[in-house]
Write a structure and sequence with these properties.
The complex is a heterodimer of chains A (76) and B (472). Chain A has 76 residues and is an alpha+beta fold. Chain A has one domain: Arc Repressor Mutant, subunit A (Orthogonal Bundle), CATH 1.10.10. In chain A, 50% of the residues lie in helices and 16% in strands. In chain A, strands 1-3-2 form a three-stranded antiparallel sheet. Chain B contains 19 helices and 15 strands. Chain B is 32% helix and 12% strand. A five-stranded mixed sheet of chain B has the order 7-8-9-14-15. Chain B starts with 13 loop residues before the first helix and ends with a helix. Chain B is an alpha+beta fold and 472 residues long. Classes of the chains: A alpha+beta (76), B alpha+beta (472).
Chain lengths: 76, 472
């Protein structure tokens, strides 16, 4: 789980866009950790959200993830 | 079946939960309302009050006056929020375009859905609605509420929000319209801890499941839609609150093919109650309808004289599969040909009833027309027995989700994925053999997808001109 969390943070820090879809994050993690399961990646992302490292970004119809402090993070 | 809650249920008492006194709740007279003018000039908005129908403008004005007369410390967001809302609506009418921006980092701790950020793009003109976030409240199955709950929710929303509701949104949730970011956590805390009430789904989540009135009040219900809706809502809490899907996913449960929640048109997975034995016929009641002793359609059309009930013209000739006829004064049905249109049962409910071996048909892929146009669900599983704890249905759902999460593109609905890969591939994934009825598409698109060249004058717009009036 810690490996997956690390891979998520690495992706969140290095991705071109400050907000990204779950699926893109999932692919990046699976590139790093072949065989990482989708459900485990979701669990790790949820933990990161609960820890305050990741944030959700929602338009109402679609949800994306982002790293807290990167891109638009203030409530605007 | 009696309701069996999965966790202890609170008994809510409005007297213990209320925020406002009766005097505060009834703090204006009809005379004052008549003379009340909102602070912005809203002539076009006020046009909507004319005519015979109830108007949200009239309701909003009541709320605006009510808030104006409350003491300053009795509301947590600006008192003139409703007036600014109406003012911005007038501006949108003047400009012919919306002034709402949506989306952002608003939510409640740990939840990826249930709160939708809304912001005005003209906050200097309407400061009280600079933030005007929406909350979705997970409705109870079939929307049976106690007034204690509703009154307590109204008080909470009056105090911490705009006081404006949608009862209900098209998802089924109660929609709380408009509050500020600081109020989101307090509302969520009070709603969950005091009212025992959860938020609904939004974003790339399982959306709040919804069902028809089901066995609670309807004799046609072939499945216990309320129990099924509750069971799946509780079972899939993680999917409802923590987004990891490519896009939205909706379950809806209709108790019979009348489809009162229109699951076939709206849900990625539509569950529609049906039967696999024969329609039950009471021949004496058939005769009573023919003789005019029982009114057809439960008397729904009695306001006008339509002449004597004619079973041939009004029932048998209208059967889409021509599977009914009269023989020796008795009504006969070739049940193998029945396609569950429900017309005969609706016309003569005392004489005809659904069979007793009941379950549901499962259909997949309905959606609104963002990509590829609107689609109705495709009948995939003609019959499935549905009994608690519904493990067979959960197993099917898990298979579908695994495939969609693996193969679906970002923002691709299940129906679009099925179209892109082909129905055959979907059937392979869920392990169901193909049938001719699946391949045929006897469905019509109720929406028109206009292209620019189809519209006289097109819709070219200057983005710089647009941005001069709408901040990013």
């Amino acid at each position: 789980m810690e490996d997956i969390k690390k891979a998520i943070i690495e992706y969140a820090e290095s991705s071109k866009k400050s907000k990204f879809y779950f699926k893109d994050m999932e692919k990046a993690v699976q590139n790093k950790i072949p065989g990482a399961k989708s459900r485990d990646i979701k669990k790790a992302a949820t933990e990161l959200v609960n820890e305050g490292t990741l944030i959700y970004f929602s338009t109402g119809s679609t949800t994306m993830y982002g790293l807290k402090g990167r891109g638009i993070t203030e409530d605007k | 079946m009696a309701f069996e809650p999965k966790q202890p249920q609170k008994k809510l008492k409005y007297e213990e939960l209320r925020i406002y006194t009766d005097e505060e709740l009834r703090n204006y007279t009809e005379e004052e309302l008549k003379n009340f003018k909102v602070k912005h000039s809203i002539p076009d908005v006020e046009e909507l009050e004319k005519g015979p129908w109830p108007s949200f403008v009239a309701d909003a004005k009541r709320e605006a006056l009510h808030r104006k007369k409350l003491a300053d410390d009795r509301v947590m967001i600006p008192k003139d929020v409703v007036e600014d809302l109406l003012g911005q609506l007038q501006l949108s009418f003047d400009d012919g375009e919306t002034h709402w921006k949506h989306g952002g980092i608003v939510g409640v701790f740990g939840y990826g859905g249930g709160v939708i950020g809304r912001y005005s793009d003209v906050p200097e003109k309407f400061p009280s609605i600079a933030h005007f976030h929406t909350l979705r409240v997970n409705q109870v199955a079939s929307k049976f509420y106690k007034t204690d709950f509703l009154r307590a929710l109204c008080d909470l929303w009056e105090y911490r929000g705009s006081g404006l509701f949608n009862m209900h949104g098209s998802t089924g949730d109660i929609i709380l319209l408009g509050t500020t970011t600081e109020q989101l956590e307090p509302i969520f805390y009070e709603m969950t801890h005091e009212l025992d009430q959860d938020l609904g789904g939004s974003g790339s989540n399982l959306r709040t499941p919804s069902c028809c009135v089901g066995k609670a009040r309807c004799e046609f219900a072939c499945i216990d839609t309320q129990d099924l809706c509750y069971e799946l809502t509780m079972h899939y809490q993680d999917e409802l609150h923590r987004p990891a899907f490519p896009y939205k996913f909706k379950f809806k449960f209709d108790g019979c093919p009348n489809g009162c929640v229109a699951s076939i048109a709206r849900a990625d997975m539509s569950v529609i109650g049906t039967w696999r034995d024969d329609i039950r016929i009471d021949q004496e009641a058939v005769q009573a309808y023919i003789n005019g002793e029982i009114l057809p359609n439960g008397g729904a059309h009695r306001g006008r004289d339509w002449g004597k009930f004619d079973i041939q013209k009004e029932v048998i000739d209208l059967c889409p599969t021509r599977c009914m006829w009269m023989e020796d004064g008795k009504l006969k049905i070739n049940n193998r040909e029945c396609n569950r249109c429900m017309h005969c049962i609706n016309v003569m409910p005392r004489a005809l009833r659904p069979g007793e071996d009941t379950g549901a048909s499962i259909l997949f892929g309905a959606k609104a027309p963002i990509l590829e146009g609107a689609q109705m669900s495709v009948l995939t599983i003609p019959f499935m027995k549905l009994e608690p704890p519904y493990d067979n249905l959960k197993e099917l759902i898990d298979k579908v989700w695994d495939w969609w999460m693996e193969e679906g593109k970002n923002r691709e609905r299940l129906g679009e994925l099925i179209q892109r890969h082909g129905l055959w591939r979907f059937l392979e994934v869920i392990g169901v053999p193909a049938m001719p009825q699946m391949v045929k598409m006897p469905r019509a698109n109720p929406y028109i997808y206009w292209k620019e060249e189809d519209v006289p004058g097109g819709w070219d717009r200057d983005i710089n001109d647009y941005r001069a009036r709408h901040k990013r």
